[in-house]
Structures are given as structure tokens and as C-alpha cells.
Amino acid sequence: TRRGGSGDLGIFHAGTPKSLPSSGQKSIQEVCHPLSAEEPVLPPSPDGGSTTTTKDLSLPNGNAVDTSSPASSSSLLNRLQLDDDLDGETRDLFVTVDDPKKHVSTMETYITYRVSTKTTRTEFDLPEYSVRRRYQDFDWLRNKLEDSQPTHLIPPLPEKFVMKGVVDRFSEEFVETRRKALDKFLKRVADHPVLSFNEHFNVFLSAKDLNKRQGLALLSKMGESVKYVTGGYKLRLRPVEFAAMGDYLDVFTQKLGTIDRIAQRIIKEQSEYLVELREYGPVYSSWASSEEEALQEPLDGVAGCVANCCSALEEQTEDMSEDFLPVLREYILYIESMKNVLKKRDQVQAEYEAKLEAVAFREDKKTPVPTDVEKCQDRVECFNADLKADWDRWQNNKRQDFRQLLTGMADKNIQYYEKVRKKG
């Protein structure tokens, strides 16, 4: 499933449920690195000539594709997203989170967000909904999705708790950052061919007053079976492709964690440097006012240059804090979600292996395999297929998100250096 292109990283399209890939999918070793761009190897031409071929490229709407080199990283990104934009007509569920409002009562202070939905799906009674939800409502939804869809990767929510005295959770910057993260969470769920049809998701989007108790009976049999798997079963050996997933996640966690720590240190140092610059520039302005014209002009020039540097550095620091770090943290949380699904899959496989072993050692070899063993095998196969499908979806999302993030960073760094070069 491809995601619709937009400035919002979480833009989506969701259609009718599609059958999930079988366990015969390609192995994880065959999946390209999310940021790689390896060209496919072309077979030799029949006449023994060059393998370079020229063919007419056209879009589904009949327009020719421009194959010239992009003028900038932004134009490159737009071209990469062009095909996604053509899929806009396939969407039948649009969800947005906006309009945060602060509520103060005698008992607590909290923020609510407007959740707007437009849809043509028959599962909904109306084509449009607008409800208000607070963070704990989003948390309720995610928990319900985890319980009722244990074989699927549930997108992460932004972290609930913040350090008091370090971050003001009612500040405009914090609320906006959380709003973007909640919006992305819902868009990712709406983009999923299975999660988007979950009854809890329907209730979350449409119910005026969200009763946390409703939907408790909606837990699927799969959810119940996985929920009550005990820790008494021990997996002998994780299959190679799932072991490769775990290894990849471990390495990816380490890389993102290192980048996150360094980025936070850079932001801290830039913020401290910005404080010094703001004090540094006015000194030259004050000095210039007490000098003759011959010296006044170069002093004003220095003050103007410092002011330009302050403005550019402040903008660059904000970009890193508001755009770069949230994506890193989302994927760090995403990795934890993926690891949890892998653990659940291992538990189901371990239970199946234990039951199969018990059958193998029974005295009566002629009786058929118990149905509970067959059901356990079905759960393993279902887990494998769902996990592989979600892994591919996650890799595709990751590739698009980081491509857009890194391309945007390149443009913003160019803008930063262009701005500081201007004369004051």
C-alpha cells in the first residue's frame, strides 16, 4: 500500500481491506536498506549491445515523465512523491487532528484536540465527524488496537510524561509538537488496511462522548488467545527471517539513539551560543553611536551581520527541535512496538512447539492431532503473515519519512548559510 504524498509525513490513503501476504513472502535479507537507492541490474540485450535502453515513460494520466536532473533537493523530493499524489482518488478516509484547546477545572488542567473525519465508508453512519479528544483518549485507542489486533504493528503515540521544570506541557510549542504526533498516529492507523477497519477506531472517530468501557467485548479471539499466553513456553529458535528483523531493529535503535543524543547536544550548544550572540551584536551598535562616521559604518555592519546570524541560527535550531527530533523519537518508539510484536509472535510459536512436542511423545500415535494444536499452528501462520506485511509497510513508511526529513534538512541548511552571507 502506497502512501499519498503531502507535506505532512503522515498523509495516507486507506481503501478496502486487502488480503495479507502469505508466509511465503521474500525473506528479510532480500529487503533493501530503507535509505538505499540501488538500481536494478538490467539483463543483457539480445543483440549483445549495451544494456542501456531508452523507453518512453509516462504517468497513468498520460503525461510524460521529466527525466532531467532536479534543480534542488526540494524538486527531487517532489518528483519522488509525484506518483503518490496520483493515488489521491483512492482514499476513502481522511482524518486530521487540529485546534488544541486548554481546559481548566478545579480538579485538573488538560488539552483537548479536535479530531475531524471525512469518509465514504459504509461502516460509518455519517460522512463527516468532528469530536474532541484528549491524550488519554488516544492512549485508550492504542491499547484497544494492541489488544484486538495483537498480530499487527500498532503505530506509537508520543510519550505521555514529560519532566516537570524542563518542559512546559501547556506551552504553545509543546502542544503543537504533540498535536503533530497525534495527527500522524491517526493517519498511520487510517492508512492501515486492517487497523483502519477496527471497531474501536470507528468509535474513537465518531462517538461524541467516548465511553472507555465500550468496545470491551470487541476483543477478537486471536487477541484473547495471545493475551493469555503464559511465559511457561520457551522458544527454541527464532526463524531466520524474524531473527534478522530483531538484529536490524537492535542496530537501528543504536544508530537512532546516537543521532538523537548528538542532535540534542547540538541544539543545546546552539541555544547557548545564540544567547551570547544576542548580547554580542548590540555592543557594536552601542559602540557605533559614540564614534565618528568613519568608524560608525563598519561597526554597524558588524552589528547587522551578527543580527543576521542570530536570526538564521534561531530558525535552524527551531527546525531541528520541531521537525528533526520528533521523527527520530517516533521511530525509536516504533522500534519498541515492533519488538513487542516480535515477542508476541515468539510466544505463540513457543506454545505451538510445546504442544506439538507433547503430541509427538504421546503413546497413542494413531489418534489425530488435537484441534488445539492445529489452531495454534494457524495462529503462528497468521502472526507470520501479518508481521511480514507490517514490516514491509513500516520499511516503506520509514524510507519515505527519512527521505523527506533528510532532503528538508539539506534545504534548510542551504537556506541558513545563504542567510548568514547577507550583509547587515
From TrEMBL:
<dbReference type="Pfam" id="PF09325">
    <property type="entry name" value="Vps5"/>
</dbReference>
<dbReference type="InterPro" id="IPR036871">
    <property type="entry name" value="PX_dom_sf"/>
</dbReference>
<dbReference type="GO" id="GO:0034727">
    <property type="term" value="P:piecemeal microautophagy of the nucleus"/>
</dbReference>
<keyword id="KW-0653">Protein transport</keyword>
<dbReference type="InterPro" id="IPR027267">
    <property type="entry name" value="AH/BAR_dom_sf"/>
</dbReference>
<dbReference type="GO" id="GO:0061709">
    <property type="term" value="P:reticulophagy"/>
</dbReference>
<keyword id="KW-0813">Transport</keyword>
<dbReference type="GO" id="GO:0015031">
    <property type="term" value="P:protein transport"/>
</dbReference>
<feature type="region of interest" description="Disordered">
    <location>
        <begin position="1"/>
        <end position="76"/>
    </location>
</feature>
<dbReference type="GO" id="GO:0005769">
    <property type="term" value="C:early endosome"/>
</dbReference>
<dbReference type="GO" id="GO:0000407">
    <property type="term" value="C:phagophore assembly site"/>
</dbReference>
<comment type="similarity">
    <text>Belongs to the sorting nexin family.</text>
</comment>
<feature type="compositionally biased region" description="Polar residues">
    <location>
        <begin position="19"/>
        <end position="28"/>
    </location>
</feature>
<protein>
    <recommendedName>
        <fullName>Sorting nexin-30</fullName>
    </recommendedName>
</protein>
<dbReference type="GO" id="GO:0035091">
    <property type="term" value="F:phosphatidylinositol binding"/>
</dbReference>
<feature type="domain" description="PX">
    <location>
        <begin position="91"/>
        <end position="212"/>
    </location>
</feature>
<dbReference type="GO" id="GO:0000422">
    <property type="term" value="P:autophagy of mitochondrion"/>
</dbReference>
<dbReference type="InterPro" id="IPR015404">
    <property type="entry name" value="Vps5_C"/>
</dbReference>
<dbReference type="Pfam" id="PF00787">
    <property type="entry name" value="PX"/>
</dbReference>
<dbReference type="GO" id="GO:0032456">
    <property type="term" value="P:endocytic recycling"/>
</dbReference>
<dbReference type="InterPro" id="IPR001683">
    <property type="entry name" value="PX_dom"/>
</dbReference>
